[in-house]
């Protein structure tokens, strides 16, 4: 395990002051980098620990913010913030680009070797960066089978990996089919993994707050999904000394 240095970073986006979590691997040279996007409830210690874990593997990692430092405990309040955001690709892209600018500005980042990994709303933002033509090495999403504006998926320039629970009522089979049809029609190098028996947000450990129906933790699939994300990065964005 390598020594990881972390710090909070503030930056403007979507009319808010975002507070991201930057994790740096040991050493002084430039390294490949990963954006880590949170689910709709917001950035919390789960994504911060994911960024730290990626730094331990040798990546510069930025867990970015989507709500100006807020973590939503009320599902209705969260949906009131996220649903308009998910319906506004340009807003999602603004949030993604602002975080990407912070990551690129970090001296340890190799600006030509960046990937984006996101959960839920953060995954939708990662996909919108791809649809905006950003030069990423890979996009990985969990619970984020969002579709975009017609034809824009053709601008995705990297492999796309997506994971979803088979019992996710928010990303049901019809949504899976629409997403894969978009990726296939655009000629994207895409993969979809369906985790049997898993609900929405199956990757996230239980939290002491109200959760909507259809949301639930699946520890085995959570570990498998994380391993799949790490494998995606090893394939598309290997760490080389």
Task: Describe this entry's structure for a reader.
The chain is of the alpha/beta class. The protein is 34% helix and 23% strand. The chain contains 6 helices and 8 strands; from the N terminus they run βββαβααβαββαβα. It has an 8-stranded mixed sheet, sandwiched between helices. A hairpin with a 2-residue loop joins strand 1 (5-13) and strand 2. The longest helix has 18 residues, at 219-236. It is globular.
Q: What descriptors fit this protein?
A:
eight-stranded mixed beta sheet, 8 strands, single chain, alpha/beta, 241 residues, 6 helices
Number of helices: 6
Q: What profile does the largest beta sheet have? A: 8 strands, mixed
Ends distance: 15 Å
**What's the number of extended β-strand segments?**
8
Mean pLDDT: 95
Poorly predicted runs of 5 or more residues? none
Compile the SSE list and pairings.
Elements: E1 5-13, E2 16-24, E3 31-37, H1 45-56, E4 60-63, H2 75-86, H3 89-105, E5 109-119, H4 121-131, E6 139-142, E7 160-165, H5 173-185, E8 190-195, H6 219-236
Parallel strand pairs: 3-4, 3-5, 5-6, 6-7, 7-8
Antiparallel strand pairs: 1-2, 2-4
Could you provide a short overview of the structure?
The chain is α/β, with parallel strands linked by helices and 241 residues long. It has six helices and eight strands; from the N terminus they run E-E-E-H-E-H-H-E-H-E-E-H-E-H. An eight-stranded mixed sheet has the order 1-2-4-3-5-6-7-8, sandwiched between helices.
């Amino acid at each position: 395990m390598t020594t990881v240095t972390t710090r909070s970073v503030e930056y403007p986006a979507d009319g808010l002051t975002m507070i991201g979590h930057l994790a740096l691997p040991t050493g002084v040279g430039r390294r490949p980098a990963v954006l880590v996007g949170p689910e709709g409830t917001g950035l919390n210690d789960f994504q911060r620990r994911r960024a730290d874990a990626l730094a331990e593997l040798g990546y510069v990692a930025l867990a970015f913010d989507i709500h100006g430092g807020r973590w939503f405990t009320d599902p209705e309040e969260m949906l009131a913030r996220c649903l308009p955001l998910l319906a506004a690709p340009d807003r999602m892209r603004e949030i993604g680009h602002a975080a990407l600018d912070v990551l690129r500005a970090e001296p340890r980042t190799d600006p030509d070797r960046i990937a984006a990994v996101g959960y839920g709303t953060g995954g939708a933002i990662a996909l919108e960066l791809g649809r905006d033509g950003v030069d990423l090495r890979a996009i990985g999403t969990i619970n984020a089978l969002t579709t975009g504006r017609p034809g824009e998926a053709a601008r995705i320039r990297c492999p796309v990996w997506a994971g979803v629970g088979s019992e996710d009522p928010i990303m049901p089979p019809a949504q899976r089919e629409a997403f894969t049809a978009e990726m296939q029609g655009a000629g994207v190098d895409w993969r979809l993994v369906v985790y049997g028996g898993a609900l929405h947000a199956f990757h996230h450990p239980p939290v002491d707050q109200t959760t909507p129906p259809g949301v639930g933790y699946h520890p085995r699939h959570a570990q498998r999904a994380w391993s799949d994300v790490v494998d995606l990065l090893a394939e598309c964005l290997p760490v080389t000394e």
